[in-house]
Predict the structure.
Amino acid sequence: MILKFFWIFGFIAMGSALLCITRKNPVSSALWLVVTLFALAAMFVLLDAQFIAVLQVLVYAGAIMVLFLFVIMLLNLGRPGPTDIRGPLGLLTATVLAGALALQLRVLSESPLPSSIQLPPGAITALQQQQGIVGAVATPLFGTYLIPFEIASVLLLAAIVGAVVLAKRKL
Amino acid sequence: MTGTAVDLIWLAPALALLGFVLNGTLALTRPNAKTLVSVIGAGVSLAAFAVSIAIFSAFAGLHADEPFVFRYWSWIPVGTLQIDFAFQVDQLSLVMLLVVTGVGSLIHLFSIGYMKEDPGYARYFAYLNLFVFFMLVLVLGASFPVMFVGWEGVGLCSYLLIGFWFTEEQNANAGRKAFIMNRIGDFGFMVAMFMLFWSTGSLDFGTVFTHAPNALAAGGRTITVITLFLFLGCTGKSAQIPLYTWLPDAMAGPTPVSALIHAATMVTAGVYLVARCNLLFAMAPVSSAVVAGVGALTALFAATIALKQWDIKKVLAYSTISQLGYMFLGVGTGAISAGMFHLITHAFFKALLFLGSGSVIYALHRAYHHTHSHEDAQDMRNMGGLARYMPWTTASMWIATLAIAGVPPLSGFFSKDEILTAAHARGHADPIWLVFWGLALGAALLTAFYMTRLMLYTFHGPNRTGEKEQAHLHEAPWIMTGPLLVLGVLSAAGGLINIPELYHGNAWLHHWLEPITQASAPLLPAVHLAPATEWLLVGVAVTVALIGIVGAWRLLKPEALVPARQAPEERGFARVLKNKWYVDEIYDALIVRPLVWVSREVLWKQVDQRIIDGAAVNGAARGARALGWANRWLQSGQVGIYVAVFVVGVLLILWRATS
Amino acid sequence: MLLSPALFISAVLFTLGVAGVLFRRNVIVIFMCVELMLNAVNLTFVALAQTLGMGGQVFVFFVMAVAAAEAAVGLAIILAVYRHRQSVSLQNMNLLKDG
């Protein structure tokens, strides 16, 4: 059952991703990407990562993609440009390279994981029931990964400052 | 090593080399110091001769059977090949040493007078000394490579001296022709050396001749090929068929050079080589027959050409080629001492003939200089009746003429006769030798004829030089006439060194050279002629000579000659002879022109221009440019391309990681 | 159970993202494809978290933070470039070729 839904959302994600990269209109591309992100969020839920799913919707689809749309509209790129997509040579190159990459990744994904680090199935669900859904993410976040957390906040600060400076008309 | 004068063998070539260095320096710094140059040039030569006499007497006193080898330093030690710079003192090399230094010194003295007015005086003596040095290295060398150093060196000096007056294109061409033809012969020498090393494992004379009978089958293919290649070298150096055409052209050099190099010493190097390798040639009867046959044929062939030459030096040049043929006939028959005997006597009378002609040319030059005439001073048609102006020269040259014709009891009679007798004797064992004997006899007839012709046209009959010039014709200075007289005495009495037993003589040279020839003696057919046969042969030879002389005296009319400028063209067979049987023209058409054509059309236009320049050089440039053009795209600034390359890189990493 | 399909889908999405980067000339759309690639990676992490521990989900957290920062700064750069060149076509951004 879960598997069936997983595949449905998977196909939605793949389909809208394909549409995203082939639309001439940048706004269409952006909106199709939003659909992809939603489908991914659904898949996250099915993978016992509910907190991440919500974050995905709030941050990615809600903030980042909105920012993209703002910039598109600010630069008045709502209409498709004449040379937005490459010609047949570019299509050929993209297909070939992407195809090769896909093959490689398939080979990689089929290699088995080492069993020594694997957890027993259902361990995550148990953990979540123990500590709560948010707690399961928070405990390692503020425990083992505290320092990267702090650094990430500094990074965000740097990004804010950078974005403000770069976007000014006159320094 | 021996504690006698023999140890000083290095001194003889060292003196000549010293002369070259000193005279060469003078030529570059003070070319007008002619007295100093004369003293050094002739001085080292005479000193070398004195040293040679001392060594000779010391050696004779030792009564040695084995040669003395003096090793000076290790020259080429490579693996199993060990070549030292070494000299070998034995009976054969000492004979050559005496001839080279003795006759060489006389020619040095003559040159002092002959070249007096020449601005290149110092350079001349420098080259002459250098030549003596290399010739001594050649005859004293204890191994094939050292001999080859001398061989090449005399070739170089020959080139330098033939083209001495190189500002005339003709002279430069003559020098080049001599060098190139010698090179062809040298190729043969080298191949023979390689094969000898490969078969016997060494290149020292002693070792090779000891091992050769064991390592090589007598009469086999290898030894025949080796000796034939050696003989190829001899045909180049000693001007036999087919590589003889350089020698007549070499007459473009100064006359004393022709006397020394192209009569007495360098051209005899080939005979010396065969004599030195007599064991190898005895082991290969086919090659010996080739040597003798080519020698006999060349003797006759060159004599026919000499019959119709008008330039006095060209007559002598062809005479030299012819007499060298005799020497090869001698050594090819196995009669080493006969060949060497003729080498020695020929050195005497041929040097005398050349120097004498030098005196004549000198006299005519001076006469023409006084009258500002531009006639050819070497053409016999401009001479005639010079006996009354140059008596000493005439007398000496008559002695030489009788000697070369083989009139007893002069030296040439004994040496020539011994060769003829040896050839006839071997003809009893092998009939082809009788053919050679016949050819040589024919050559003897012609020799007597053309030499008498030369004397007749030059010294007798009416004088054609011109009224005004006659007043200035006189004998050459004593520095030039002196050596002529010395050589005259030697030409007359030189036979004494090897009077055969037939005349109850002691055959000194023959016995002297026995240690050299004893190894090959068992391999040669032993033929003994009855004394009656021998006397008959002597009689035939003398008769032939007399027929030649008397025939020329009677048949030729010097009164009918006109000076060269007004002389009519030759016609018919005489024209063929005058033009040397057109051999030069044949070589030019068959060999030189095709080579030049191949060089120009194929090697230059196709290989050099198209393939090397076009494909290789320009092609490399074009390839580099193409490569650069291809690489341009990597840095075009197009981000799309950068991304694509990036993805390719990722693919490669993944591929390596998963495989 | 869900690991294989998740990895498969992730691979496909990533490939599509790469194709998009190679395929498009509009800088903003290329940027969006890069975001697509990041999301594919997120999916991989989350799928593997089920078998290998919560570290996967924490990492996704960080990826999102970085993606947000990067999107902000990147778009600011694109704005600045647009002001100079009046174009967002990748073809016109070839200053790397000189020098």
In short: Chain B is about 70% helix and 5% strand. The mean pLDDT of chain B is 87.
